[in-house]
Amino acid sequence: MKKEILRFITNFIVLILMGCSSKIIPLTNANLDVRNRDIVSVNRDVNTLILNNKIGDGIAIIKDLKFDEGIIEVELKGENNPQKSFVGIAFNIQNDSIYEAVYFRPFNFQSNEKVRREHSVQYISKPEFEWRFLRTNYKGQFESEYPRQPSPDEWFKVRVKIDGKKVFVYDQETKVELLSIERLTKQISNRIGLWTGYNSKGEFRNLKIKKLKTKY
């Protein structure tokens, strides 16, 4: 109990100290290095990006942005399409197949089956720690339910806090912690990107970064 209280206080202080360092990241063609996806549309007025679906994972890497520890805020939109809607963020990107990611399965948000709802939020560290390996060997440790159960076809906003050892995921609307895990790899790269999974399209808007260590 004392550890939980201390962690809450620490997180609260960090968020206050970082409140003035938020930076909005423009989601434009010129600002993105897109891998295994095509940009369907960009709307600068509402800072929104849409990526198409293709076989395999896709990443839209943010150019000229160095990020290792801090907070990422973003609004995401998938669809109610079972096994074909995976949207999230990738970080510690070394190349197209080596990175960490936090992503969501919107088609599970409101499922009538509890076991599916418990697979709504996921952390992975590719290539060694894919979702299937983690679910088989560390059941329930690297994925979780989304208690608010957003509509699978609507926007939802999340906050991901990353430090050298852990990753915390929050629902921005309720401030509820969705996932808290120990990272499965060391920080090597300072690149981050918007991520879509196998055969998935994705929509992203209002990406904000709050840094802890390195400078822009």
From TrEMBL:
Domain of life: Bacteria
Gene3D superfamilies in the cross-refs: Exo-inulinase, domain 1
Name under which the protein is recorded: 3-keto-disaccharide hydrolase domain-containing protein
